[in-house]
């Protein structure tokens, strides 16, 4: 149990560290990152005052990725694993209002914002997420991976669908979220990165026919392909350039989730190096690095990140991740209950 706890804390810690590391580079081109920070971001940096989203944020500050993941985590604990989707929507709205009061430009993503607007106008839950194809569900899904055992993959995918369909009820988005949740869950049970990636692909395959169909590349296939690209013996040049230009680093699930697993394949035994690479790619770096850190942390523990870096992130954001990790694991040891009520939402 202690080992699972350490991995659970590692998953939440890695998510926060990756998020903070990618905060100042998010939405920047790979070339702009290299010019400002070098080929690899190697420390926590503050965002430049003219940054389009994070302008002026202090070094070590997390973004919406960590904040929404923790929001979902606490809701899972409070609801014993059976969150009401409208409650999730309400809390996300309150979160965005708080972000506006803080002067932040890091607000709800396009899929979630559109879905909540439709809910407020009377659209049914499930229908509201029919256009959601971005990585918003995947970026906040880590707590569900911690609290849901990997033994029955269908139960895990059912639960991913339950908490995601309010905003991301498409096969593409559900496949992406299921891949991250499954990789985290597998890591909690002792899997290494490559084993977790295999489980992630299986979960993505299972989820891809859920929700609404939208045109787009298959997430599971692209994860396999992305891993094969970066691990091929003929790879030349900087792998960050390869991931950025060939695999892609946008908000689209077909790009950002395969990119995350490609990064993990490059540094399967070094969570810190993996997060540094993810934060250096360009594009949606905070989300990609957050997902990378969560999976890498689950497959090792929080010792995979430099103590000084982790300490800074925890202090800057006033985070205490241990209690939440423990509460989520308590749900896991009970086997979860949401899978027994997959129609309840």
Written overview of the protein:
- This protein is an all-alpha fold and 345 residues long.
- Helix content is 61%, strand content 0%.
- The protein has a single domain (2-338), classed as ADP-ribosylation/Crystallin J1 (ADP-ribosylglycohydrolase fold), CATH 1.10.4080.
- Helix 1 (2-22) runs antiparallel to helix 15 (285-298) and helix 14 (271-279) runs antiparallel to helix 15 (285-298).
- The protein is globular.
- The two termini are 31 Å apart.
Topology readout:
Blueprint: H1 2-22, H2 30-37, H3 64-78, H4 85-101, H5 110-120, H6 136-139, H7 142-147, H8 153-164, H9 171-188, H10 193-207, H11 219-231, H12 239-247, H13 253-266, H14 271-279, H15 285-298, H16 307-316, H17 321-333
Helix pairs in contact: 1-14, 1-15, 1-16, 1-17, 3-4, 3-17, 8-9, 8-10, 9-10, 9-15, 10-11, 11-13, 12-13, 13-14, 13-15, 14-15
How much helix is in the residues? Answer: 55-70%
Total discrete domains: 1
Order of helices and strands: HHHHHHHHHHHHHHHHH
Distance between the termini: 31 Å
**Beta-strand level of the residues, as a percent range?**
under 5%
CATH class: Mainly Alpha
* CATH architecture classification: Orthogonal Bundle
CATH H-level superfamily:
ADP-ribosylation/Crystallin J1
Average of the residue pLDDT scores: 89
Strand count, sense and barrel status of the largest sheet are: none
Number of helices: 17
Calculate Rg over CA atoms.
Answer: 18 Å
Q: Which residues sit in consecutive blocks of at least 5 with pLDDT less than 50? A: 337-345
**Total count of strands:** 0
Structural class: mainly alpha
By CATH, the topology is ADP-ribosylglycohydrolase fold
What's the shape? globular
């Amino acid at each position: 149990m202690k080992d699972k706890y350490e991995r659970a804390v590692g998953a939440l810690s890695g998510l926060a560290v990756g998020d903070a590391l990618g905060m100042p580079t998010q939405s920047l081109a790979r070339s702009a990152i290299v010019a400002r920070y070098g080929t690899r971001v190697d420390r926590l940096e503050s965002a430049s005052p003219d940054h389009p989203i994070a302008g002026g944020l202090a070094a070590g500050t997390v973004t919406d990725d960590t904040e929404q993941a923790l929001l979902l985590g606490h809701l899972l604990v409070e609801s014993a694993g059976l969150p009401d989707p409208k409650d999730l929507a309400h809390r996300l709205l309150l979160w965005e209002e708080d972000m506006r009061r803080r002067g932040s430009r890091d607000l709800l993503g396009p899929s979630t914002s559109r879905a909540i607007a439709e809910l407020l106008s009377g659209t049914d839950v499930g229908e509201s997420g029919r256009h959601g194809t971005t990585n918003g569900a995947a970026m906040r899904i880590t707590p569900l991976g911690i609290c849901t055992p990997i033994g029955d993959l269908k139960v895990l995918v059912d639960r991913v669908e339950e908490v995601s369909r309010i905003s991301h009820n498409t096969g593409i988005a559900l496949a992406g979220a299921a891949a991250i949740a499954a990789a985290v869950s597998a890591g909690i049970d002792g899997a290494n990165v490559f084993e977790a990636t295999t489980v992630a692909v299986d979960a993505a395959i299972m989820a891809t026919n859920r929700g609404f169909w939208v045109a787009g590349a298959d997430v599971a296939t692209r994860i396999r392909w992305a891993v094969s690209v970066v691990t091929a013996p003929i790879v030349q040049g900087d792998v960050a350039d390869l991931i950025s230009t060939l695999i892609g680093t946008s908000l689209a699930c077909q790009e950002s989730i395969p990119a995350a697993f490609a990064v993990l394949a490059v540094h399967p035994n070094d969570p810190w190096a993996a997060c540094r690479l993810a934060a250096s790619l360009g594009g949606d770096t905070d989300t990609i690095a957050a997902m990378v850190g969560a999976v890498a942390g689950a497959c090792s523990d929080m010792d995979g990140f430099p103590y000084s870096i982790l300490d800074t992130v925890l202090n800057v954001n006033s985070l205490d991740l241990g209690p939440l990790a423990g509460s989520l694991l308590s749900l896991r040891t009970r086997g979860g209950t949401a899978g027994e009520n997959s129609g309840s939402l």
